[in-house]
Amino acid sequence: MTGTCDLKILSGSANVDLAEAICGHIGCRLTPVLREQFSDGEIRIEIGDNVRGDDVFVVQPTCSPVNYHLMELCLMIDALKRASARRITAVVPYYGYARQDRKVVPRVPISAKLVADFLSVAGMHRLMTIDLHAGQIQGFFNCPVDNLFAAPVFLDYFRDLGDELVVVSPDAGGVERARAYAKRMDAGLAIVDKRRDAPNQAKAMNLIGNVRGKTAIVLDDMVDTAGTMCAAGQVLAENGANKVFACATHPVLSGPAIERLDKSVFSQILVTDTIPLDVRKRTCQKIKVLSVAELLSRAIMNVHGETSVSVLFV
């Protein structure tokens, strides 16, 4: 794949800043792409450079508006396929629809699988993503999937706190992730028992573990409406935690999330730039954004150079 096969990086409209930051780390320019929308809502895509025989990486998280960005990504992949790109890797830092990965009630779709089919039929040869909500989604693809972890981006920051730390999972499903962080930081582990009453509504109930006198870090893969996270933070404060931090890879931040985080007990909310923050979301002074651009640039260079990507896994 190396030799005469040039590396090209393209970006959809979802997160151009991240794509440019990746190019800055690699030392290349962002390949121009014409992205327009017709008056009826249809999307027009035109690749600005020749990509014949090239190794192409398309940076496009499928964040809000999810359906628009997903369709834009599929059209870009199709354009690259028809332009004879040698390999097309979709770099999707945030994989939308990942929470719909199985049938939990009758007569519902498995949306995460359908999105995988969209990308595959469009012509994608490889997927690169970060902290999939459900790791088994990798099995929905019949091509290589690199599910990177944002842990290296967060770990150095938390090690510098210097306090006695305890990593907290806001629900039972996130225990494995929290345990991995706790092990690497030599920190304690706690779990908040969560009872979900309705979609996007959750109630944190009991704390399993000891946080008294410690700095607690509530860890999750994403923060959406922030109901679960803020409820968990409140439980930790009530159980004697000195400081409470929140940490989530994907800042979805929909609905009342910003208002909830502003009023929360958290000293700081750590997120990454897998999803860009709009002007309203940037008004929350507690949110600190760490970049995954270097992590993605290293993964892209390893894939392009046909070397191991697993060395980046934590």
TrEMBL record:
Known catalytic reactions: D-ribose 5-phosphate + ATP = 5-phospho-alpha-D-ribose 1-diphosphate + AMP + H(+)
Entry function: Involved in the biosynthesis of the central metabolite phospho-alpha-D-ribosyl-1-pyrophosphate (PRPP) via the transfer of pyrophosphoryl group from ATP to 1-hydroxyl of ribose-5-phosphate (Rib-5-P).
EC number: 2.7.6.1
Annotated residues for binding of D-ribose 5-phosphate: 196, 220, 224-228
Cofactor(s) recorded in Swiss-Prot or TrEMBL: Mg(2+)
BP-aspect Gene Ontology terms: 5-phosphoribose 1-diphosphate biosynthetic process; purine nucleotide biosynthetic process; ribonucleoside monophosphate biosynthetic process
Key words, A-Z: ATP-binding, Cytoplasm, Kinase, Magnesium, Metal-binding, Nucleotide biosynthesis, Nucleotide-binding, Transferase
Localization terms from the record: Cytoplasm
Protein name according to UniProt: Ribose-phosphate pyrophosphokinase
Record-annotated Ribose-phosphate pyrophosphokinase N-terminal domain positions: 7-123
Enzyme class: transferase
Record: residues binding ATP: 40-42, 99-100
Main location class: cytoplasm
Cofactor details (free text): Binds 2 Mg(2+) ions per subunit.
Family recorded in the similarity comment: Belongs to the ribose-phosphate pyrophosphokinase family. Class I subfamily.
Pathway(s) where this gene product acts: Metabolic intermediate biosynthesis; 5-phospho-alpha-D-ribose 1-diphosphate biosynthesis; 5-phospho-alpha-D-ribose 1-diphosphate from D-ribose 5-phosphate (route I): step 1/1
Amino acids binding Mg(2+): 133, 171
Residues at the catalytic site: 194
GO molecular function: ATP binding; kinase activity; magnesium ion binding; ribose phosphate diphosphokinase activity
Organism (species): Humidesulfovibrio mexicanus
One GO location term (cellular component): cytoplasm
